[in-house]
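Mods, move this if it's the wrong board.
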Amino acid sequence: MTGGQNDGLVSGDRHMTRAELDDHAARAAQGFIDIGVRAGDSIALFLRNDFAFFEASVAAQQLGAYAVPINWHFKAEEVEYILNDCRARVFIVHADLWPVMAHVVPSGVHVFIVPTPPELASAYGASPQQSRVPAEAQNWNDWVAAQTPAQNLPPPATDSMIYTSGTTGNPKAVRRNPATPEQREKSLWLRKHVYGFAPDMVAAVPGPLYHSAPNSFGLRAALSGKGVVLVPRFDPEGLLALIERYRISHMFMVPTMFVRMLKLPKEVREKYEVSSLRYIIHAAAPCPPEAKRQMIEWWGPIIHEF
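Not the wrong board. Structure tokens:
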């Protein structure tokens, strides 16, 4: 990665190295253990794309617990249903999203509030006051820093448990059993040959991590690649600027993103250097053939559908 960062996570002007991510996840894992989180328990995440999402998800996996990302567009009653349905032991939420959810968290659930960082506050119109953790609340960053890193944790045993959009009644989730060593080996093969993963990859995550494919792609890229650039909110030209600045090589995208990028004026599209791109994977909806043809003409034969 360029721009002063060579590994780990980037969001806006912030950078977290892979070593720092590993340390924070180990600290969070020990903290979860100390408050009674065990294998099979659920840790609910009401977060936008941020470092805390990775810290908590990796920590949960190391314990054999389930990170449960929740669509932050959901209404309070939908969130309440999920928290009860998954029997959440922990609820982690961005500061600006907390006020409308405070009244629906079941008793006994440990709540941690993440300060809304500047790039997310700017993208979603949160004021400095809304972005701060209330004085009486538990600040996620402070809590993680105060923990002792867990030792001798096993390899990640679980994946995130993601709920559907709830378009046919209440949201539903599939709770997968922990992967066996053989299944983990097959998953590594799959990520290499389907996602195009490579140790030197620099990935961008332009989609929300509460969706299954960006979640799997982003978490695995952070643990097996060189670096991951988090996109606070999808913006076609903004994404092109990130590709050029950080020499992005891999991305997971959806057809709507292709369509919006192709709507940029030709002179804007040609202004940015995108030759670093090596592997673009897309899914979620059928891709219009004309859009895919134009993307291949623009970026080359590197666009793959699964």
